[in-house]
Specification:
Layout (H helix, E strand, L loop, with lengths): L6 E6 L3 H13 L4 E5 L4 H12 L8 E5 L7 H6 L6 H14 L4 E3 L5 H8 L4 E4 L18 H7 L3 E2 L3 H4 L4 H13 L2
Helix pairs in contact: 1-2, 4-5, 6-8
Length: 183
């Protein structure tokens, strides 16, 4: 074993029974973390927690809920039938995830401070849509800089294309790290 921690970014979303079995299978792999979609509702989230917790292991797999994708803004949400704005929906789903026993959420860092205030310091906040000032937003609509994400209370920053599409990925990652540390 390489000693790496693995996050299974599978975004499970199905009927509760199927998600419970899938979450248990994910936990059997020894993954550090797995995610499910909060939009699956309370019963599905509880089933996911039950599946993960049914697996005896030395270190427990943490389970987090994906809230509103960072590629969606308020007009995108309205177009698919949501009357609530992104911030309200994210906060409602974060509270529901915590009530169901999940360890945290995936959400834009734009909502991280409010999630932290509502759910406490132990609740994990994973933030995608991280873009340094000089990076293109691409298909992301609710983006935040690495510095602002850390300042808002995010625990884990997800940075993809600003690194993977860089001409010098190592340098890009080092610059992002430096920006995070300067917060």
């Amino acid at each position: 074993m390489l000693g790496c921690r693995v996050f299974l970014d599978l975004k499970l979303h199905d009927i509760p029974n199927t998600v419970e079995r899938a979450a248990a299978n994910c936990a059997h792999t020894g993954a550090d973390m797995v995610n499910v979609h909060a939009s699956g509702g309370r019963r599905m989230l509880e089933a996911a927690v039950s599946g993960v917790r049914s697996v005896p292991q030395g270190t427990r797999t943490r389970i987090i809920a994906v809230t509103v994708l960072t590629s969606l803004d308020n007009s995108s949400l309205a177009a698919i039938g949501f009357s609530q704005n992104a911030e309200g929906l994210v906060l409602d789903w974060a509270r529901m995830a915590q009530d169901c026993g999940l360890d945290g959420v995936v959400a834009s860092a734009r909502e991280a401070a409010k999630i932290r205030a509502a759910c406490g310091q132990e609740f994990i906040i994973v933030t995608p849509g991280i873009r340094p000032n000089n990076a293109a937003s691409a298909d992301q609509k609710r983006i935040v800089t690495p510095r602002d994400a850390v300042a808002s209370g995010a625990n884990i920053l997800v940075v993809g294309r600003p690194i993977t599409e860089s001409g010098d990925p190592v340098k890009a990652a080092q610059e992002i790290r430096a920006e995070m540390i300067s917060s």
